[in-house]
Every structure is written in structure tokens, then in C-alpha cells.
Amino acid sequence: MDIRFDTLFEIELAHTYYTSKVSEDSTIEPTPGTRRLMQDYGLLFRETSGGGLVLYEYYPDVTDHPHPVHPVEEELQFSFFLRSSSTVLLNYTDLDIDRPSDQILYFSNLQSNQQDGRLLLSADTSDEYVSSQDDLLLRPPLFNYSFQSVQTSVDMEVKDVFGNVVQHSRILVVDGEGSFTVDLRKRTPGKYSLAIDGSTVMEFYASDSLVRRSALGVIDILTGSGVPAAYRFLDTNFDVVPRTYHIRFNRRETWWKYYVVLKYRPDIQPDDLSIKQTGGALHFTRQSATTLPDGFTAVPFLSTAPIPLEEEPVSGLRLERRNHGHSETFEIDNLPNASVRTVTPDPAEHKIYSEIFIYV
Question: What phi, psi does 130 have (nearest 5°)?
């Protein structure tokens, strides 16, 4: 008898920085708990060039319709680490460049975010890309939460991702200070919320393995009635309706700032220099000359608008020198592009710069 497998669900990672539009530096892998769960149900995980997919074993009926050999008839959660092999991913990705270490990106099929025919796992329904709305605090399964209150006692509740209360206590408040121990060691790693007297004060992802291992984020794919219908990969008969879920990262835009350093030609007048793009729409404004720490004069040129960082280089950028009243001119074609390894945030201006140095 042949053993047959087909797709249960697939997760695709995209990134507009890459020419291929595939998030080439990102990978997903099942968490240890999910690997055990998949083994129990005879499921296989396969990494793809743009994400990963889960396969299930099936048998065909007389009409050749596939049915799972091991039906999933209960509410389950499949979790995956999202990692990046790039050490500068945040430099070229449109996310907060200074992300706290106790924060992860959280994605799940509990979203209802369909755009352009895609089932997006990100939270921002006004955009197709990952955003700050996908940020979530990361906590170990056991931690202490301190708070202040004018009440003499408060109700503390911990709820799971479906809103079910999994921990509840009445906590005394002494001199305006209270403390509550969150204990989820016997619970499945996942998203939880903490509420005081019914008001949510904290949302977090509780996971020992995530705390101990470096990961950019986590992806939870759940089953059950709490999942929006369009995002379910099982029908009411527990047969498979394969789904493809999408996570899309957008490229960062930065203000490009060229420094033309007059190292070998200090006689050049800054007003004689210009940077242009042949047949293109990029424009640069010359700024006042400045003296660098090494003593050389530099002429800065700032883009008139932020420019997207892309794997495919921008062509046609050139430095021109027109010497007024003299015959000597020169051009330097195909100026180097901004590097994704060096970006400079300016919190005061709410801008991020890419600085490029050219020595003439």
C-alpha cells in the first residue's frame, strides 16, 4: 500500500527588499512541542525556499477524495520559530530598528486579514505588511508581575488566546503595592493576557524555549471554532481544506546622504558639484560643506525624499563637476548605493539616514 502525503497548510514569507520578493534570509522551524505533536498525528514539516509547509498522510475514498489517516479532531496549536540568518535584517526592514530584547513578532491564523486573496497572519488590516502591531512581549512561563492600585484588593486573571481564564486570584494590595505570580508552566506556550479587575494590563507570549533561544518571532497555527472560517484548514468533517498563510515584510526607506570628500582635490569648489540620476526620478540637494574629523572637507548631498533599500542596485547615479570659467570637467558614473549594513537613525528628526562617502 502506498503512503501518500499532501499539504495541510503552508506558510509563505515575503520581503520586498529582495528581487525575488521572497524573504531569503528568513526561516521557520517547528518548536519542540510542535515536533512532538506532529509526530503524534503522523505529520511532516518541510522547509521551502520561502517558508515551510506541513504535510499529512491521507487515504483516498472511492471518489479519490483524500481523508487524513490521523484526523485532527481536537483543538490544537502548531507553533513555529521565525528566525533570520541576517544580522542586519532590521536595517533594511520597515520595523523599529531598536527592538527591545524582550519583544518578539507574533503571528497567528486567528487574524481576519485577507488582502489581495492572501490570508495574512499579520495584524494591521490597513496594510499587507508586518508592522509594530505584531509586536508582543516575551515572558517565561513563570514570572512575577508588580502593580500599583488604590484598592485594598484586586482580581487578577490570566486568559489564553481564546479568552478562557486559565489562572485567577484575589490579590491583597498593601500600601498601594501588589504582586502577582503568573504560573503557566503546565500550559501550552502561547499568547496570554493579564487583567486587573477585568481590564487588560498586559499581553505577552509565554514560552521557555523562546526565552532561551534567539528568534525574531513565533507563528501559531491553531484549529477549532475560535479560528475565523477562512483561516481554518479543517472542515466540519475534519477533512483537510489546505491553506496558504502569508507573512509579508516591507523594505525600509532611508534618506540617502552622500559625502563628497575632497581628499585629493581640495581645490574643487563645492558649488561646482552636483549629483544626478540619468533618466531617473531621484534628486539630491547640495548642502553646506563641512569639515570631517580627519580634517578633510566634505560636500554633503541629501536626497529630496526617502529612497527604498533594494537588493537590486539603483543605477544611473553620477557625480558631476562643472568648473565655471574653465574647460576642466569630470563625471563619476554609477555611484555606490546605500549599504544595508550602515543606517543612522535620527530620533529628533524621526528620520533614518544612509550615509555614503565618495573620495575625490
Answer: -60, 140
